[in-house]
Write a structure and sequence with these properties.
7-stranded mixed sheet; ATP binding; alpha+beta; 4-stranded antiparallel sheet; 11 helices; binds cytidine-5'-monophosphate
Length: 304
């Protein structure tokens, strides 16, 4: 069984106050995109969970048991064992990374959610959607979104999800510069700014999507992390200008960075923009948004 683990962008990302548990309250509209990792699952006669990770040079991911894929597999395995579901003695997981890490594209979280989903289907476990969701929440704030896909508004620490209707797919160019940003650092940098403000754009974006007002969906895109990330890394503010000059209608930070996305009018404009940006940056991806239906249809990959 081979699964596509699709990445995401955030169409809005409002960060509010820090909670007693150390996490921040937030509101965000998350959007699946076609860029993905590939995860292959197969039973193994050797007992235990066996993990292999193939990543291009620039993608720095743990290939050991600290990888979220391995943690997800152990978690689901334990749940299934408690319920006395029949399991094989061993499981092999082979991950091919394509989504850059420390980019804000949710690659690791998507891999973890795909592991939960794939094990549930591969072993015909009958964990309830609520049980899968609890496992996803335990693995990370973004992980529950990747069980659902499409366009979703997330609140709480990111785990309270409300699916939204699909928006017409649009083309994107994503540029990952050679710096990586840790999510924890980005939240701390926001906390260190007493004058920080939130765009509070999620509610307006949600309404625009519910009314099918695509013009406003374009206009309302924003990300609270930009105020600290562009200040700490001026080269990213510069990159945003370059993406605009390559023809983007909109450009924003992906999650807490360091990748930026540009929205393009069509595939041709995106390919042209990517060609221009490719002269200065080595990690440039042309992709597009995915509806929930496409996310679910394409999740199970043919051999690639
Ligand atoms: O949940 P996850 O492990 O992905 O979060 C990584 C880090 O990002 C957390 O340790 C925390 O510092 C920060 N975070 C936060 N508030 C959130 C989500 C993440 O402060 N809602």
């Amino acid at each position: 069984m081979k699964i596509r683990c699709f990445a995401k962008i955030n169409l809005t990302l409002d960060v509010f106050s820090k909670r007693a548990d150390g996490y921040h309250s937030l509101a965000t509209v998350m959007q699946s995109i076609a860029l993905h990792d590939l995860l292959a699952l197969s039973p193994s006669e050797v007992p235990g969970i066996h993990f292999m990770c193939e990543a291009p040079d620039q993608i720095d991911v743990p290939a050991d048991s600290s990888n979220l894929v391995v943690r997800a597999a152990h978690l689901l395995w334990e749940r299934a064992a408690q319920k006395e579901y029949p399991l094989p003695s061993g499981l092999s997981l082979h991950l091919q990374k394509r989504v850059p890490s420390q980019a804000g594209l949710g690659g690791g979280s998507s891999d973890a959610a795909a592991t939960l989903w794939a094990m549930q289907h591969f072993f015909r476990l009958s964990l309830s959607p609520q049980e899968l969701l609890e496992c996803a929440q335990a693995l990370g704030s973004d992980v529950p979104f990747f069980l659902l896909g499409g366009t979703v508004v997330a609140r709480g620490r990111g785990e309270q999800l409300t699916p939204l209707p699909d928006i017409p797919p649009f083309w994107l160019v994503i540029v990952k510069p050679d710096i990586g940003i840790s999510t924890r650092w980005a939240y701390e940098a926001l906390d260190a700014r007493p004058d920080r403000r939130s765009h509070r754009a999620t509610k307006r974006m949600e309404e625009a999507i519910l009314h099918g007002d695509f013009e406003r969906v374009m206009a309302f895109q924003c990300n609270d992390f930009e105020q600290v990330v562009f200040e700490a890394y001026p080269q990213l503010a510069w990159l945003a200008d370059e993406i605009r000059m390559a023809g983007a209608l909109q450009t924003h930070l992906c999650g807490s960075g360091s990748a930026l996305y540009g929205v393009f009018s069509d595939q041709r404009a995106a390919l042209h923009g990517a060609e221009l940006l490719g002269k200065r940056y080595s990690h440039v991806y042309v992709t597009h948004t995915l509806t929930r239906e496409r996310f679910q249809q394409l999740r199970l990959a043919e051999e690639e």
